[in-house]
Each structure stands twice: as C-alpha cells, then as structure tokens.
Amino acid sequence: MTRENLFSPSPSARITIKPIELNDIVLETFLQNLLNALQWGSFYSLIALGYTLVYGVLRLINFAHGDIVMVGAYIAFYISAALLGKYGMPQVLPGWAVLALTIPLTMVLTSLVGVTIERVAYRPLRRKGAHRLYVVITALMTGLILENGNLLLLGASRKKFPELIDKVIYKVGAIYVTNLKVGVILTSVLSFIVLHFIITKTKVGMAMRAISYDKFAIPLMGIPVDTVIVFTFVLGSAMAGLAGILFALSYPILDPYMGMSIGWKAFIAAVVGGIGDIRGAFVGGFILGIIEISVVAVFPSSYRDLIAFSILLLILTIKPTGLFGVPHTTKI
Amino acid sequence: MKKVATLILALLVTCMTFGSSFAADTIKIGFNIPLTGEIPKVGESSKFAAEMLKADINGQGGLKVGDKKYKLVFIYEDNESKAESAVAVAQKLIDRDKVLAMIGPNSSKQAVPAGEIADINHTVMVSPWSTNPDTTLDRPYVFRAAFLDPFQGPVAVNFAMKQFKAKKAAVLYSLANDYSKGLAEIFKADFEKKNGKGSVVAFESYGDKDQDFSAQLTKIIAAKPDFIFLPNNYNEVALTVKQAHDLGWKGPFMGSDAWGSAELMNLCGDDCIGQFFSTHYAAAGATGATKEFIDRYNKKYGYIPDDVAALTWDATRLVLQAIQEGGKLTGNLRKDRENLRKSMANIKSFAGITGNMTFDEQGDPIKCAVVVRINDKGEFVFTESVCPDNN
Fold first, then answer.
1. N or C: which end of chain B has fewer CB within 10 A?
2. Measured CA distances, A290 to A192, A306, A315 (Å)
3. Which residues, at least 6 apart from A199, have a Cβ–Cβ distance to it below 8 Å?
4. Nearest-CA distance from A261 to chain B in Å?
5. How far apart are CA B130 and CA A214, in angstroms?
C-alpha cells in the first residue's frame, strides 16, 4: 500500500497528497507534550471517575471528592513514612515494597474516610428526604472541613512526599519519560478497565446501575440500597486514594489545599464526558488534560485556562449532557 | 469640708483615669503576615524574629522613648497569603487593634493592596520583604526594608551573563503573583536590552495553584535557552525544578529572593543543589551583628533564619528607632502615627543585619543584594555582592 492510498478516499480520486515532512523538533515536541497530556489527563480521569461513580448512583455531586484525594495523599504520606522507619519503626522494606504496601493500605483507609463521610454527612439527610441541593451544600462543607481540619491538625507547613522508587528517566530520541509517568498512565487505564468490569459485569454493579435508574422501585426488589451506596463510596474513595498516592509521587509537595483546584477541574471533566457514565469520566479527563497541555504548547501559556475552558464550554453548548451523557429530567 | 473633700477626690480620680489613658505604658505594633496559605514558613520566620526582638526589649524593661519606658505589644494576624485577607487584616489592625505601626505584609502580592489601606488610614507600614515598586510608590506612609525588583532584575541578568556565559534566557513565572510577574517583566526587558531582541527565547507563565508545568517546560526546553529564570515562590520552585529535570533539562536555573526560605531545601532536595539565586543576605559565612542574630535564632528555633526573618528584624527595629527618634508619645493615636511617619521619613541611614541602608524619597532603601549558591549540604553560600553604585 502506498502512501497516496492511505490518504485518498478512493483510488479514482485524482488528488495527490504530498507527505508532509515533519520538522523533527515539531514532532518531538508534539510527542513529548502528548506524554505530558496523558499523565496530566490521568489524574483528571482518576478523580473524575470518583465523581461520576457517586453521581451515577446517588445523583449527588460529591464536592468533597477533591479533598478526599488530598486526604488520600496525606494518608499515603504517613503510611510510607512509618514503613520507611520515621516513627521509631525499623526500616526493613526496600522502597518498592513500601510502595506496594502503601497503595492498598491507602486505598482501604481512604475508602473508610469516604464511607464515614457518607454515614455522618450524607445518609442522615437522605433519610430525612432532604432535597438534593442540601446534600450538595453538605458536600461542599465537608470539603472545607477536611481542608481546615487538616490545616489545624498538621499545621500549614507543607510535607515533602518521599521518593519511594528510584526515578528512571528514559530517553527515546529526544523525548524524555520517567518510569513514574508511564506508571501513572497505565494505572489510570487499568483502574478504568476494572471499574468498567465491576459496573457492567458484576451483580453489585448491576445493583448500582439499577439504583441510578430508579431509586424508589429498587428497595422493593429486595436490593439493600444502603449497602450498595456504601459500596459505591468505597469504590469512589479508593479511586481518590489511588489518585492521591500517584499525585503525591508525581508532585511530591503536599498541602491542605492541593485537592481543591484539581478536584474542581476533574469535576468539569466528568461533566464534559457526561456525568454518571464512567466512560465519560475517563475520556473527559484525558480530553481536559490534552486541551490544557496543547493550548500551552501552541498559545502563550497565560491564555491556558481561558482557551481551555472556552473549548469545554463549546462542547457543552453543542452537547449539554456531555459526550456520553443521557438527558435526565431533573438535574441540579 | 465635706464638699471640698469630694471635689478633691473627684479631681484625683479624673487625673488618674485621664493620666493613665494619656500615658499608656505600651506600644502596639501589628504584624500582617502569612501564617497559613501558600507560604506559611514566611509568616513563621517573621513571627519568630519579632518574638525574639520583643523578648530582648521587654527584658530590658521596654523601649525607652523620651524618658519613659514602654512595653512592646506585638499583634500577629494571619493574612493567609491572600491579597484580600491582607487588606482585611490591615484594616483590623489599624481600626480595631489601634496599632501605632504595621509590619508586613511580606509578599508584594499582599503588600501592594495592603499598602493602600495603611496609606489612606495614615498609619505607618513597613514591608520587610516586598520588592515590587508599587508597594511604596506615592504612598508617604509606606516603607520597606528590602531592595526593589528594578534593582534585583538586572542583578540576576548580569550574574547569569557572567556565570553561565548566557546569551539566551527562558523565564517561567506565576501569572497571579504581582511579584513574580513584575520581576519577570523587568528581567526580560533588561536581558533583551543587553543581548538583543528575542534573546529571551521563552517567556511562559502558569496559574494560581498549578502543580503541573510540563507543557511550559517542554516549550522552554525546546527553545534551548542557556538557563531558566524562575522568579517564583519556593514551593513552586521545588516542583518546577524537579519536572524540568524529568523532561531532560540539564542546564542551570537562576532564582530570585522568593527562593530564600528555610523550607526550600526540605521540599526541593537534591534537585536544587548547585543553583543560584539573588537574595537579601547570605546566612552562611555571615559576620558581626548578622552572625549574632543567626546564632541566637538558630539556638532558639532550631534552624538557620531565612531572609524574611532577618528583614523582619530590620523592619521592626527601623520602626522602633523611628519611635525613639520621634521624642515622645502623646497618647493621641493620630498625632503619634503622623509623628512616626515624619521620623521614619527622616531616617537617612540604618545599619541593619541585612546590610546598611539609606532611604530615598519614596521610602525605599538603597542597599546591596547578594547572589548565593546552594551547596551540597543545602546551605545558601555567598557568591557575590552587588551594590547599586557599581551596577
């Protein structure tokens, strides 16, 4: 197959397309930025997945989610510091083993935090049949409580996340990529696949989808709604915990407000993808990452948020339910 | 008889109440500092230095003004490292706490708007650390202890041209930060003046609370500069330097005085070793009063004081010296504040621990800057001193 055949729609069309010689530096910069965008988009994706899971089941925008990511990062910090022998414990494990232990422990502990928040803040309101608006406000307040509680408890000084694995910088042509970057991208793809499997192929996933469809009829079918909701928060918060560790590894400076801005943006990514659908969250996260990075790559960087969010606004104007979204009659 | 006795008693009571209110035995100074938020270490340093000074003076019975000794009362308020909070804090210190003078805010981002409040309320404000010209510009009540960015920018340019033999520079700055943006622009103008138009090959920015700079850095590295200038806060510097190394950057960085926090090396680690930045004083290798201050601070708080600590010490002493030179305090806050402004403006030279300063008509000190190198132990080692005359 020749190059012309690849480009022209049919052999009969007499259009000859000359292959464009890509300037090396342009191509290299493009590939480097693609990698940057995939890494940055991975974080949006992981966080957006948590937003969308809770929204899909409860129709609740869990605005505390970004701050749960922050809590996850701090939990990871303390677990790894303890395993590294900071608090009088002997250090017996090498760095990679510490990381291998920190990830599941953080995910478990962060999901406990998520479940506690659901139990203490959201469930009582749900029981009283409060309007969803009040639950959203509660979520906002929970986020603020997490931020300021952390500030009070641990002080305003930032924490430096330890480097658990030796950083390896690979050089492919003129493109640089670290082992961490590859790890982050693979993890986010993997967690999407796992989540997708849980939701479409398992019984509890079916129950989650069912509650999302009709939360009044489902209890009548004998499905324990509260258990399924708790499971949803376990999944969502475990994702937040995972995002927290990976974020802390990639940007190793922790502060109480670190989850706020990325949380908001990931929420926007989830909406653009179509909130309530995990495919939407996954794709939306990468779209936002790619748009942000490519705007900086092409335009002066001071225009980044202006242009990036104008593009997202345009997407929403054309498709208000987001890329994968289905219209609902009541939304907040 | 009874009437006379009552009259005398009434007179006595009046005298006592008025007397005590006229001659309050304390001097209140407010501190508008970032104890939380972006740069909490800066606020902590300021507070620690001020506490040390207060303990010294109150230990000697207070500050002698005229022939009377006054105890110092320092009020620390947190401006959360936000411009709007700094304004609110300034208003509170001036109106409610009725301070005689205000020290801070430290960053230009807060000092520029808070200076407006101090000026319209006719209260003396001294910013220890702010280097942006707008802080004191046309504000007779606002002073500072730091040099200015129009001076600091060329210091960085000249040093980089000499040290790195640089012909091409790249700049990455924080768009939402007055200090960073101002200094980046001054640097660019000066570098292009000396190396020709277009010699700043990349001039990139990022937003508030950004953590990922990979796109900007990719662009910068592709432009192949001789060094990268980072006029940013230490927390952002730590992230930027690491990410640049991840993207294959092996060249040098040049920083500005916002790097000089005691927390920089905790956050940045090995990545920052060997880099240079311009600052107000070099702790390693200091002598005389500066060394005495560093040793005492280190003994008391367990770390080497950064430039903010030293500048707060100088700024506060500057105010105290002006109060003493003002002669006496009347107890009428408006008069005393006005009087303090006059004596502040009359100070022609001052021997601070960050160097000798003389003041121009804007209330800005004319003083030397130093360039330090971060050595293998993470100490800021003196490399070069640049004074306004030989620049």
1. N
2. 18, 15, 14
3. A205, A208, A209, A278
4. 7
5. 59
Query: Which amino acid is located at B31 in the chain?
Result: F
CA A116 from chain centre, in angstroms, equals 21
Task: Give the gap in angstroms from C-alpha A33 to the nearest C-alpha of chain B.
Answer: 6
* Angstrom distance (rounded) from CA B206 to CA B45: 27
Same domain, B161 and B259: yes
Kindly state the tokens that stand for B192. 């292009």
Query: Which residues does A231 contact at the CB level (< 8 Å), separation at least 6?
Result: A204, A208
Q: Do B232 and B293 have their domain in common?
A: no
Identify whether residues B83 and B23 lie together within a single domain.
yes
Is the backbone peptide bond immediately before B105 cis, with ω within 30 degrees of 0? yes
**Contacts for B232 with CB less than 8 Å, ≥ 6 apart:** B172, B173, B174, B177, B180, B240, B255, B256, B258
Q: Do A296 and B204 touch (CB under 8 A)?
A: yes
Provide the strand spans (E) within A113-203.
Answer: 159-160, 169-172, 175-178
The distance from CA A174 to its chain's CA centroid, rounded to whole angstroms, is 29
* A251 contacts B239? CB cut-off 8 A: yes
The domain total for chain B is 2
- Whether residues B327 and B375 fall in one domain: no
Of B205, B235, B266, the CB nearest to A302: B205
User: In CATH, what number does A3-318 get?
Assistant: 1.10.3470
Tens of pLDDT along chain B (391 residues)? 566 666 665 655 555 544 444 445 899 999 999 998 888 899 999 999 999 999 999 999 999 998 889 999 999 999 999 999 999 999 999 999 999 999 989 999 999 999 999 999 999 999 999 999 999 999 999 999 999 999 999 999 999 999 999 999 999 999 988 899 999 999 999 999 999 999 999 999 998 888 999 999 999 999 999 999 999 999 999 999 999 999 999 999 999 999 988 889 989 988 999 999 999 988 887 888 999 999 999 999 999 999 999 999 999 999 999 999 988 888 899 999 999 999 999 988 899 999 888 888 888 998 889 999 999 988 899 998 888 764 4
Indicate whether B376 and B333 sit together in one domain: no
Q: Is A170 on the interface with B (CB under 8 A)?
A: no
Q: Assign residue B215 the CATH number of its domain.
A: 3.40.50.2300
List strand residue ranges (DSSP E) for chain B, in order: 26-33, 63-65, 68-78, 101-103, 124-127, 142-144, 169-174, 200-206, 227-230, 253-255, 276-279, 349-352, 355-359, 365-366, 369-374, 380-386
Name the helix (H) or strand (E) containing B344: helix B333-346
CA pair distance A283, A155, nearest whole angstrom: 37
Is there a domain that residue B391 lies in? Answer: no
- Using CB atoms, which residue from A25, A36, A261 is nearest to B222? A25
User: Are B138 and B203 in the same domain?
Assistant: no
**Comparing C-alpha atoms, which of B278, B258, B261, B277 is closest to residue B369?**
B278
Backbone phi and psi for residue A74, each to the nearest 5 degrees, phi listed first = -70, -40
Runs of H (alpha helix) within B164-208: 178-195
Residues B255 and B296 grouped into a single domain: no
CA A239, CA B61: separation in Å to the nearest integer? Answer: 60
Structural domain range at position B17: 7-146+287-359
- Rounded to an integer, what distance in angstroms lies between the CA atom of residue B37 and that of residue B35? 7
d(CA B51, CA A180): 44
